Amino acid sequence: MAAANMEKRVIVVGTRQSALALTQTGQVIDELKRISEKHGFDYTFEIKKIVTKGDRILDVTLSKVGGKGLFVKEIEQALVDGVIDLAVHSMKDMPFELPEGLINGAIPKRVDPRDCLVMRDGSSLDDLPVGARIGTSSLRRSCQLKHARPDLKLESIRGNIDSRIRKLETEGFDAVVLAAAGLTRMGWQDQISASIPVDVCLPAVGQGALGIECRENDKQIRQLLAYYNDTETELTVRAERSFLGALNGGCQVPIGAYCVISDADQGNKVERQLVMTGMVGSPDGATMLKEVMQGTNPEQLGRDVAAALIARGADRILAEIGG
Ligand SMILES: NCc1[nH]cc(CCC(=O)O)c1CC(=O)O
């Protein structure tokens, strides 16, 4: 056992104060405690709550305010300043570029990446009556749902997961759209009426995955986090993020991507391929461009899928939205 492992240390974990952030941070800490014990690290963990700009303006339409990474800037500053040692993010809220000196130390195994419907009645997209009112403020979700069902009325809805579910009743929606991952982490999976297949609604880049951010020069934490990384998730999320970066997109544009690993049996050897679908659409769902490609280098694959969509006019769609 390396001597560094034996050193006692209190690791301060920064988190937003939303129920989802606190819950997933708690779950990550439980897992890191388990890994610490297993590998002989003498670490204890402490939570530090941080209020971000995104939390302060949750009642405003975020897509109007604009700006990328509204939920992470203050947390990253605390990491840079040494006030905290770790931060747990939903991968899909993580900006494309990390500040100098910070890295993503681990991407743990991804859970269900799909969007789902919490419905008043019914158990599938097809059960929604003609002209049903659907609550979502994600342009990506409205684009794809409108494309699949032009009759649906997509309306803006804000707030944390629990307040969005409440609005199903109080604001008379027929359904609200949420990520299965958030509901499951909260233990609310019984609220899911229908999972939307990824070929109907391609998830946001990194949806269902977490990112654990730390300082690049913190060797102890990096050693600990290496045990928590999931290689398959890391490769697929890297491809998706490369796609997002090549399109210069934030989370407020109708961009979706989902990458999986497929092991193709080539007779005498198994070849590992990344298979990625990327999507760019107009908010009204009238235009929706999709490409599926495969490759072995995640960054290259992301750029290739982006280039293929740009060749078909994706950059013009995004320029119109101002994404
Ligand atoms: N945009 C907010 C957000 N950021 C991460 C999740 C949970 C899903 C995940 O971890 O990917 C959610 C809620 C949602 O989209 O329903």
TrEMBL record:
GO terms for molecular function: hydroxymethylbilane synthase activity. Its cofactor is dipyrromethane. Residues 11-222 form the Porphobilinogen deaminase N-terminal domain. InterPro entries: HemC, Porphobilin_deaminase_cofac_BS, Porphobilin_deaminase_N, Porphobilinogen_deaminase_C, Porphobilinogen_deaminase_C_sf. The keyword Hydrolase does not apply. The modification S-(dipyrrolylmethanemethyl)cysteine is found at C251. Keywords: Porphyrin biosynthesis, Transferase. The keyword Transferase applies. It comes from the Bacteria. Binds 1 dipyrromethane group covalently. Residues 235-310 form the Porphobilinogen deaminase C-terminal domain. SUPFAM superfamilies: Periplasmic binding protein-like II, Porphobilinogen deaminase (hydroxymethylbilane synthase), C-terminal domain. Pathway: Porphyrin-containing compound metabolism; protoporphyrin-IX biosynthesis; coproporphyrinogen-III from 5-aminolevulinate: step 2/4. Its EC number is 2.5.1.61. It catalyses: 4 porphobilinogen + H2O = hydroxymethylbilane + 4 NH4(+). One of its GO terms (cellular component) is cytoplasm. It holds the Pfam family Porphobil_deam. Belongs to the HMBS family. Tetrapolymerization of the monopyrrole PBG into the hydroxymethylbilane pre-uroporphyrinogen in several discrete steps. The porphobilinogen subunits are added to the dipyrromethane group. Monomer. This is Porphobilinogen deaminase.
